[in-house]
Write a structure and sequence with these properties.
The protein contains 15 helices and 21 strands. By secondary structure, the protein is α/β, with parallel strands linked by helices. The chain folds into 2 domains: 353 residues, TIM Barrel (Alpha-Beta Barrel), CATH 3.20.20.80; 100 residues, Immunoglobulin-like (Sandwich), CATH 2.60.40.290. Strands 1-2-3-4-5-6-8-9 form an 8-stranded parallel beta barrel, surrounded by 6 helices. It has a 5-stranded antiparallel sheet with strand order 16-17-14-20-21, with no helix packed on it. Helix 13 runs parallel beside helix 15. The longest helix has 19 residues. The termini are far apart. 46% of the residues are buried. Bound molecules: ligand G2I. Ligand G2I binds next to loops.
Length: 478
């Protein structure tokens, strides 16, 4: 059930300073919101420029987590993980293929690094995952097994891994992805060699190895009420009836923009009503790339809705995003043409989705976030001929926070196209244009500005765009 985690404030403060130094979001300093739970609004919190998801979540009685890559847990990546999240899941480092590539030879370095990091930052750990058909070492997936020999190998593996981290893991994804889309059992090596009972046996072995960890079964495409989630529901019901130790159900939630299931909250509720906890374990919301500002705005609403669905059900323990930054997401590698699925962009700048999460968790900056007017844009056509034109754009940072890396976006009102640019890199998709800094002009101090130019083509009309956003923030323009 819900509870708050330990928070070593000195480490948190250090992370806060690093994050403030790395803060790339303009205008954030105006919020001044103490994004802390009761009793945590120390001076550093009062001055915090950004909402802090872990504090907001704790005040609501849930955790907010992220999948991490152990080798990246330093620098800005590490600072954001420590500052914003109170649960972490190793994206790959605890999988069977990572920890026991050859039989009896263990490599715990990545997994240890994640658990150590979590303890240093007052974070829970979701152990992921003990029994899964994928990322298995060859010796397991290609072995010729009887039920008895594979059962021994499986329970030995659970004893070794869950035993190693005994008392240090809050939640274990004991069994991952056991179902097909139609609700039948996936024909994994465990299912085919051992049969249906492998799930109950795994859970019992995990309970024996680490009695304090909450034991979960985790799957994807089980977020809404459908054949697969109903199979999972029936499994949990039957396990509970048999007295098998199962504490929770993980809904991965690898979602597509525009396709958040309308039955998400009802589905969470029906599992809760069975007497188990629920967690959103691998949330991401992918879209076609490059993203338009309309897509990013929709993504914000959908992150807010998913977080809100968890908050609405008392037994939903928390939400984990599957990578917090677009630079550390599995989506572009697997879904060609899709990406931008996480709450921060590739340069660790919070996207609208981040504010959607914060808003769901009760944060408010008075109605607009980031605030309108943190930037001012002037757009001037300098020369125009029958089919083309040259324009100059100046963006001024009117906030009190330095901009370190920027993207200025607008939409053409009359079908114009950018043909060539200088002092910025311009990309166009449909009517949507994004101008990214050229590197040498990435930093814009408070009150300072950056100017770039471009050539474009037009026909029919060359009406100037009137709405601009800088790093997702609406600017003023004359
Ligand atoms: O596939 C997305 C997730 C679905 N649910 C279970 C999760 O465990 C799974 O995570 C992903 C990781 O995020 C990826 O990072 O699992 C993938 C494997 O199925 C991971 O991808 C693998 C690549 O396929 C390998 O080529 C690569 O060596 O990541 C490895 C480590 O970077």
């Amino acid at each position: 059930m819900r509870g708050t985690s330990m928070k070593p404030q000195s480490l948190r403060r250090a992370a806060s300073v690093i994050l403030a130094a790395a803060s790339l979001l303009i205008g954030g300093a105006t919020s001044g919101h103490a994004a802390a739970g009761p009793g945590q609004a120390g001076p550093d919190r009062q001055a915090a420029a950004e909402p802090v998801l872990r504090d907001l979540a704790a005040a609501k009685g849930i955790y907010y987590g992220t999948a991490v890559t152990a080798s990246k847990l330093s620098g800005t990546y590490g600072a954001v993980v420590g500052e914003q999240f109170d649960s972490i899941t190793p994206g790959n480092e605890m999988k069977w293929g990572s920890v026991e590539p050859t039989r009896g030879t263990y490599n715990w370095s990545g997994a240890d690094a994640v658990v150590d990091y979590a303890e240093a930052h007052g974070q829970k750990v979701r152990g992921h995952t003990l029994v899964w058909h994928s990322q298995l070492p060859d010796w397991v997936s290609n072995g010729s097994w009887t039920a008895g020999t594979l059962r021994t190998v499986m329970t030995d593996h659970i004893a070794a891994e869950a035993g190693r981290y005994k008392g240090r893991i809050d939640h274990w994804d004991v069994v991952n992805e056991p179902f097909n889309e139609d609700g039948t059992r996936r024909q994994s090596v465990f299912q085919t060699a051992i049969g249906d009972s492998y799930i109950a046996e795994s859970l019992r072995a995990a309970r024996a190895a680490d009695p304090a960890a909450k034991l979960y079964v985790n799957d994807y495409n089980v977020e809404g009420v459908n054949a697969k989630s109903t199979a999972l529901y029936n499994l949990v019901k039957s396990l509970k009836e048999q007295g098998v130790p199962i504490d929770g159900v993980g809904l991965q939630a690898h979602l597509i923009l525009g396709q958040v299931p309308s039955t998400l909250q009802a589905n969470i509720q029906r599992f809760a009503d069975l007497g188990v906890d629920v967690a959103i374990t691998e949330l991401d919301i992918r879209m076609t790339t490059p993203p338009t500002s309309a897509q990013l705005t929709q993504q914000k609403a959908e992150y807010k809705a998913v977080t809100g669905a968890c908050l609405a059900v008392a037994r939903c323990e928390g939400v984990t995003v599957w990578g917090f930054t677009d630079s550390d997401s599995w989506i572009p590698d697997v879904f060609t043409g899709y990406g931008a699925a996480t709450p921060y962009d590739e340069n660790f700048r919070p996207k609208p989705a981040y504010y959607g999460i914060a808003e769901a968790l009760g944060w408010t900056d008075g109605g607009t976030n980031p605030p309108t007017g943190a930037c001012a844009v002037t757009y001037a056509v300098q020369s125009q001929w029958n089919t083309g034109f040259t324009a100059q754009v100046t963006v001024r940072n009117t906030s009190t926070t330095a901009v370190n890396g920027w993207k200025l976006a607008w939409s053409w009102p009359a079908g114009q196209r950018v043909t060539q640019a200088w002092n910025a890199t311009l990309t166009q998709s449909g009517a949507a244009v994004t101008a990214a800094d050229a590197g040498y002009n990435a930093a814009i101090a408070p009150g300072a500005s950056a100017t770039f130019g471009f050539n474009g083509s037009w026909s029919g009309g060359n009406t100037a765009p009137t709405a601009f956003t800088l790093n997702g923030t609406a600017c003023t323009s004359p």
